[in-house]
Design brief:
By secondary structure, the chain is an alpha+beta fold. A six-stranded antiparallel sheet has the order 5-4-3-8-7-6, sandwiched between helices. A two-stranded antiparallel ribbon has the order 1-2. A hairpin with a 2-residue loop joins β3 and β4. The longest helix has 29 residues. The mean pLDDT is about 90. Pfam families: HTH_IclR (PF09339), IclR_C (PF01614). This is IclR family transcriptional regulator. Keywords: DNA-binding, Transcription, Transcription regulation.
């Protein structure tokens, strides 16, 4: 008897694929919850952002709550990352290669520019703020905290990272994030337009940052194999970044981004 054609053999072949699918779905849910930080995310928003059915999201969230990975706020009904996640992160005590390589550049650029600097890493279809340096200018734009996660494309850092990758790859990510853009008051056409402009300029720029009355400039940082892995951003009140100073700040960021790339490659 040929066992490879038996129903049991067919089920065995499907199990690894189904297991991988379940893990990917759980990770998709966790990424959405991570963007909500301590405020949490309503279940309806998780469903919309992931494209999963309500029963599927319910099952995933229920298991993650049982494992301490997710918590539910009894008063608001919102879901957030649980205490187990930072505890698991302690198992990786050493800072990433990116953070080590970027530290001198962040310190140097912060002293030169005087406004808030952010280092943002790409993680899947999102950006994650991994470092922030406060400058000496009296008015600082603290629009994002370390640990904040955003869909690629809603910030100048995300736009810069998208601009540094092949156009087809950028379009795929923007399409995948389309449902999530609404919460940030933007859309696919706007993001793709900003990406095109960033390619032309050589850096990402948003006339209106995540906070009204601010402006942001970002330069991408690539790995040795040419993949955009991060972005370095300056955010300031708009009056601080007129055309002349915008160019000066962009040149500093571009210079330091190349230094970081060399340090990563070394």
């Amino acid at each position: 008897m040929d066992r490879t054609n038996s129903p049991k053999a067919g089920r065995g072949a499907l199990e690894p694929r189904q297991g991988a699918q379940a893990i990917r779905r759980a990770l998709a849910v966790l990424r959405i919850l991570a963007a909500g930080r301590e405020d949490g995310v309503p279940l309806a928003e998780v469903i919309q952002a992931t494209g999963l059915t309500r029963p599927t999201v319910h099952r995933i969230v229920h298991v993650l709550i049982e494992e301490g990975i997710v918590e539910r706020n009894a008063r608001s009904g919102r879901y957030a990352i649980g205490n187990q996640v930072p505890e698991l992160a302690l198992a990786r005590p050493r800072p990433s290669r990116l953070l080590v390589a970027a530290n001198p550049s962040l310190r140097r650029a912060s002293a030169e520019i005087g406004d808030t600097l952010f280092l943002t890493a790409r993680t899947g279809n999102d950006t994650l703020c991994v470092d922030r340096r406060i400058g000496v200018y009296p008015i600082q734009v603290l629009s994002i905290e370390v640990g904040a996660r955003r869909p690629l494309g809603v910030s100048s850092a995300g736009v810069a990272i998208l601009a540094a990758m092949p156009a087809q790859d950028a379009r795929k990510i923007v399409a995948a994030n389309e449902k999530r853009f609404e919460a940030y008051r933007t859309d696919t056409a706007t993001v793709l337009g900003e990406v095109t402009a960033a390619r032309r300029l050589g850096y990402g720029m948003r006339e209106t940052g995540l906070v009204q009355g601010t402006k942001s400039i970002s330069t991408w940082i690539k790995t040795p194999d040419g993949r955009p892995a991060a972005a370095m951003t300056v955010s300031a009140v708009r009056t601080r970044l007129g055309p002349r100073r915008e160019q000066e700040v962009a040149e500093i960021l571009l210079r330091e981004a190349r230094i970081i790339e060399q340090a990563i490659g070394g």
